[in-house]
Write a structure and sequence with these properties.
There is one protein chain. This protein is an alpha+beta fold. The protein has two domains: 107 residues, no CATH class; 39 residues, no CATH class. A hairpin with a 2-residue loop joins strand 4 and strand 5. Helix 1 packs antiparallel against helix 4. The protein starts with 15 loop residues before the first helix and ends with a helix.
Length: 170
């Protein structure tokens, strides 16, 4: 009786070393892409927030800033507004008296009213009651404008990462 021999050969293409190298290269490329995208998108979100924010004097708008961060595998950014006025604008305020501590002792508060009780002009008051302000959700409006573009950027980063791993050309 003759023995029958069977031989199986398993070849992995590309070899493991090549795959490992692709992952290392893709990871470095991904990190650079994420950093660039975050800086660009953070600046775009800041610009949109500045467009949507109240423009009365421009000082508040100039104080809207962004800060990028990397924590472990997470790359992100945060938008900040001058405080406490940013919170007052975003959340609104209830009616309240303006305390005397916010003005020099014995001095009234001065306001320019375009449509005051006696017409346009400067008005002075010792006791002032602020009627409160309605919430202005400018950051939410900016976010809704920002989101479609951000999704496109994230999709491009994911496609590029996949191409780097598989070795496909762009």
């Amino acid at each position: 009786m003759t023995e029958s021999k069977a031989m199986f050969r398993l070849t992995i293409t590309p070899p493991f070393r090549a795959i490992t190298g692709r992952f290392i290269k893709a990871e470095a490329s991904l990190l650079a892409d994420k950093r660039d995208a975050i800086r660009t998108d953070a600046a775009r979100m800041r610009d949109l927030a500045q467009e949507e924010a109240p423009q009365k004097t421009g000082r508040f708008v100039q104080g809207i800033r962004y800060q990028t961060f990397i924590t472990g595998e997470t790359t992100g950014f945060k938008i900040t507004t001058p405080q406490p006025i940013g919170r007052w604008i975003l959340e609104g305020t209830k009616g309240h008296p303006i305390p005397k501590a916010h003005r020099p002792p014995g001095k009234p508060l001065h306001f320019y009213w375009a449509r005051g009780p006696r017409g346009a002009g400067m008005y002075s008051f010792f006791n002032v009651y602020h009627h409160g302000t309605k919430a202005n959700r400018f950051m939410g409006r900016a976010y809704r404008r920002w989101l479609p573009g951000a999704r496109g950027v994230l999709s491009k980063i994911a496609r590029d990462y996949t191409r780097n791993i598989t070795g496909a050309s762009r």
